[in-house]
Design brief:
The chain has 243 residues and is α/β, with parallel strands linked by helices. The protein has one domain: Rossmann fold (3-Layer(aba) Sandwich), CATH 3.40.50. Helices cover 28% and strands 18% of the residues. It contains seven helices and seven strands. It has a seven-stranded mixed beta sheet, with helices on both faces. Helix 1 packs across helix 4 (89-99) and helix 3 (68-76) runs parallel beside helix 4 (89-99). The longest helix has 14 residues, at 21-34. The protein is globular, with a radius of gyration of 18 Å. The termini are far apart. Bound molecules: S-adenosylmethionine (SAM). S-adenosylmethionine binds next to helix 7.
C-alpha cells in the first residue's frame, strides 16, 4: 500500500477519552443515518439527493470540533444543507448529541426522530480526500474555524490553509460565496492572509478583522478563548473576480 506523503497524512487526533453510553449509541444509531455517503470514485456528490431536504444552498464546515457551530447554524437555517467534517470521533459524538437535542433545550423539538429538518451530513474523517468529488462552486459558505495552528516552522506544511488546499477551496466556493476563517493565533492569521494573497485566487473582503462578520455564531472554542482573554481574528475571502 502506498504510504501517504507528509502533505496527505492527517496529523490531528482521531480519538480522545473512551466514548461510552449514550454517546456511543448515537455513533451506532444516529451516525449511520446522517453520515455523508461518498459517491463512487469517478462520481460527484449531488446536492438534490444528499439531504432529507432539497437545500437552497450548501455550507461546509471543516474541522467542526464539538459541532456546536454547525448544529446551531443547522437549526437557524433549515433550508440550508450542511456538511460537517471532523476526524476526532469524540467531537463527532458531541455533534450528534447536539443534533439529537441532548445539549440544547431549544433543540428538543428538533430531534431528528421527531421530524427535524434533516439538513446535516457528517463526514467523520479528513475532508481532503473528498474535495475532488464536490461539485464546482457547490458551496455558498465554507468555514474553517480555529484551525490547528501548527506553530513550529517545520510543521508549516500541516497548516490547513496552504497552497494545496486553497485552489480546492477556490473551485468549491460559489461566485457569490465566501470562505470564513477565524483564529486567535495572530501568526496563523498572518499566515492565512499571506497564503490566500500569494495564491492569487481570493480577495479578503471583511476589513475589520477584529469584529465578527454579520450573523456570526461563535464556536465553543471561541467563547472559551474570549473569556480567557484571547483575541479572535475574523477573515472572510471571496473568489477573485467573482460577481
Ligand atoms: C483547534 S480545533 C477547532 C475546532 C472547532 N472548529 C472550534 O472552533 O471549536 C481544529 C479541528 O480541525 C480538525 N481538522 C484538522 N484537519 C482537518 C481535516 N483535514 N479535515 C477535517 N477536519 C480537520 C481537527 O480534528 C480539530 O478538531
Amino acid at each position: 500500500m502506498e504510504t501517504p506523503t507528509e502533505d496527505k497524512r492527517f496529523f490531528g487526533r482521531r480519538k480522545g477519552k473512551p466514548i461510552k453510553g449514550s454517546r456511543q449509541r448515537l455513533i451506532d444509531e444516529l451516525l449511520p443515518k446522517i453520515i455523508l455517503k461518498q459517491p463512487e470514485e469517478s462520481q460527484r456528490f449531488s446536492w438534490d439527493t444528499l439531504f432529507g431536504i432539497k437545500p437552497e444552498e450548501v455550507w461546509l464546515e471543516i474541522g467542526f470540533g464539538g459541532g456546536e457551530h454547525v448544529a446551531e447554524l443547522a437549526l437557524k437555517y433549515p433550508n440550508v444543507g450542511f456538511i460537517g467534517a471532523e476526524p476526532f470521533m469524540n467531537g463527532v459524538a458531541s455533534l450528534l448529541a447536539h443534533l439529537n437535542g441532548s445539549h440544547m433545550k431549544q433543540a428538543v423539538d428538533a430531534n431528528l426522530e421527531q421530524g427535524r429538518a434533516d439538513n446535516v451530513r457528517v463526514w467523520p474523517d479528513d475532508i481532503r480526500p473528498l474535495f475532488s468529488q464536490f461539485p464546482d462552486g457547490g458551496f455558498e459558505r465554507i468555514f474553517i474555524l480555529y484551525p490547528d495552528p501548527w506553530p513550529k516552522a517545520r510543521h508549516a506544511e500541516r497548516r490547513f490553509i496552504n497552497q494545496r488546499n486553497i485552489p480546492e477551496l477556490a473551485r468549491l466556493i460559489s461566485d457569490t460565496g465566501a470562505v470564513y476563517v477565524a483564529t486567535d493565533v495572530s501568526a496563523y492569521a498572518e499566515w492565512a492572509q499571506e497564503q490566500m494573497t500569494v495564491s492569487g485566487l481570493f480577495d479578503q473582503v471583511h476589513s475589520d478583522t477584529s469584529c465578527p462578520p454579520a450573523d456570526w455564531v461563535p464556536t465553543r472554542y471561541e467563547r472559551k478563548g474570549i473569556l480567557a482573554g484571547r483575541k479572535p481574528t475574523y477573515l472572510v475571502f471571496r473568489k477573485k473576480n467573482a460577481k
